[in-house]
Specification:
3-oxoacid CoA-transferase subunit B, ten-stranded mixed sheet, CoA_transf_AS, alpha/beta, CoA_trans_fam_I, transferase, three-stranded mixed sheet
Amino acid sequence: MSYTRRTKDQLAARVAQDIFDGAVVNLGIGQPTLVANHLPEGREVILQSENGILGMGPAPKAGEEDYDLINAGKQPVTLLPGGSFFHHADSFAMMRGGHLDICVLGAFQVSATGDLANWHTGEKDAIPAVGGAMDLAIGAKQTWVMMDLLTKQGASKLVKQCTYPLTGIGCVKRVYSDLATLECTPEGLKLVDKVDGLEHAELEKLVGLPIAQ
């Protein structure tokens, strides 16, 4: 292996790099919350959380946590000057009303054409947890996925067709992974970038699908 996977923080920084100045962004539970810690200095990004926060800042320093101020994943957060918190229903009105420029979600599977499966694996003992994912995936102007490219068993999470229950159809525009950044288009996957040392043919072999350059 002649390449090194992006760490979770490196991946979060890669996502943050593409968020434009002035964007209103929802960061999903799990890896996406790390993006808040890597937004470039001087770039105004307004972070929204589905439990009812607008204007979140980065994670608090150790010892400065306020557990009355948490995100949708129950993690303590900070509030930037001008930030606010409000009723859950108002938050979902923002999500469903097309007021979010970008949402960044985790996923179990993403199809080459942008179908998203991120709430249930279909396993008998798995606990389904849809949360606000369906509202976010369809309500945001752009849906990005942040995930490891492969499962722990080495199978690609990027697939021709999702086998898990769908969250949304054709909603994912970009997939940011530990090995590559890819666009989902009606014609299939398109490469944006990949880690140094990873050959294009090897990436296609790992994914098991053609990837346009």
